[in-house]
Amino acid sequence: MLVGGKTSQERIAEALDRLHTIGSGQHVRDNFLDLELVYTDLGVGTPFPPMIFPFNYYYSREADTTVNICAPERTIFICKGKLDRFIRKADVDSGRCTLTPIYSGDSRII
């Protein structure tokens, strides 16, 4: 399916280029019309400021991709496939997920 004249792969590449930038959350919402909320991380026990929570995981069936968006509407990570649980180190180490370095310091990622 084309959105704005772009394939899902082109839109994923754009989303990866905009990872953790201002407006990146809205960019994903505008470019993946089938997003569904599949998991919410409330960030209990983390050192992150409370105003950035929740971290919502959205899945696009069309792109077979999960995108995490935090409360200030920034993308935190993008994963191939459906991720409906908390992200793990293995997801990142395998290359399945690309995440912002800020979130990679989360001690809960094991």
Largest sheet: 5 strands, antiparallel
User: What's the gyration radius in Å?
Assistant: 13 Å
* Number of extended strands: 5
Which strand order do you get reading across the main beta sheet? 1-2-3-4-5
Give me the number of helical elements. 4
Low-pLDDT stretches:
none
Calculate the terminal CA-CA distance, rounded to whole Å.
36 Å
Strand content: 15-25%
* Average pLDDT taken over every residue: 93
Helix and strand composition category: alpha+beta
- Give me the strand/helix succession: HHEEEEHEH
As a percent range, the share of helical residues equals: 10-25%
Give the number of domains: 1
Principal-axes shape call: globular
Which features would summarize this protein structure in a list?
alpha+beta; 4 helices; 25% helix; 110 residues
Could you please describe the fold and organization of this structure?
- The chain is of the alpha+beta class and 110 residues long.
- Helices cover 25% and strands 24% of the residues.
- It has four helices and five strands; from the N terminus they run H-H-E-E-E-E-H-E-H.
- A five-stranded antiparallel beta sheet has the order 1-2-3-4-5.
- The protein is globular and about 40 Å long.
